[in-house]
Amino acid sequence: MAHILVIDDDEAIKKVFEQFLIHLNHRVETASNGKEGLAKMKKEAPDLIITDIMMPEMDGLELVQAIRDYDPTLPIIAISGGMQTSPMNFLPLAKRFGACQVFEKPVTLVKLEAAIDKLLGISDPE
Known about the structure:
The chain is α/β, with parallel strands linked by helices. The chain has helices at 11-23, 34-43, 60-70, 91-97, 109-120; strands at residues 3-7, 27-31, 48-52, 76-80, 101-104. Strands 2-1-3-4-5 form a five-stranded parallel beta sheet, sandwiched between helices.
């Protein structure tokens, strides 16, 4: 069981991810923006962070940079649906700034689970 911090300003997405991760037996904490997420990360270090890119207060790009400054080894998954509303795709930047894996919204839960398992070193018993 891993401690996963989900940071997203979309309450519905945050709730879906939270319920899915709890179903996978992870301990989940949530935050609504990068500033809140960074504070929670510093208070109790998670094993992995899933963050949106387009958020108020502190966006995901700033957050990824701040996380890398604080802990260069912490696994980060960045997600964004901003490509529908913005001419710029920020996911390659998130990868360059230190995100381990990036996904466009909507990301399937199967892909998300596979990325989490890979980053946490969880293998499928066959």
